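Q: I'm building a small set of examples for a reading group on sequence design. Run inverse folding on the following structure and report the sequence directly after it, with nothing in between.
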């Protein structure tokens, strides 16, 4: 879609070590970069980060916004296909990141946190090796890119 603006101090723009603290890159879609959230207390939890360094949805053009939400729907469908959650929660925060992104969090009626927001504890059920991340990411990548 072009017009991507990169900021070297932003974890989603710079990638590398900054994003590796919490995420593992799965793939890219037309308007976003998809990351596996290393904290997997909700198996399949992903981050869909905009390719444009904006803080708010309203800063995207209508075309960019439509493309971004199409990517969110694609990732959500992959999560549903692989993990069969009762619900996927969509969290758009960015208070500290300053980069538009959503957490897609599979939730289950018989699991913890049903009926409430999901935890943001990066040390709970954390994948600690690239090999462990890739094992999960490979399945998601295949489902996302099908």
């Amino acid at each position: 879609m072009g017009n991507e603006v990169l900021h070297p101090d932003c974890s989603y723009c710079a990638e590398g070590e900054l994003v590796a603290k919490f995420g593992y890159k799965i793939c890219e879609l037309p308007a976003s970069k998809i990351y596996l959230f290393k904290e997997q207390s909700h198996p399949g939890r992903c981050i869909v980060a905009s390719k444009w360094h904006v803080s708010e949805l309203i800063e995207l053009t209508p075309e960019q916004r439509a493309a971004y939400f199409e990517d969110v729907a694609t990732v959500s469908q992959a999560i549903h296909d692989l993990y069969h959650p009762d619900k996927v929660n969509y969290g758009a925060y960015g208070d500290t990141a300053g980069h538009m992104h959503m957490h897609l969090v599979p939730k289950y009626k018989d699991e913890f946190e049903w009926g409430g927001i999901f935890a943001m504890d990066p040390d709970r059920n954390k994948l600690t090796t690239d090999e462990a991340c890739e094992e999960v990411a490979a399945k998601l990548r295949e489902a996302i890119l099908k």
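The chain has a mean pLDDT of 90.
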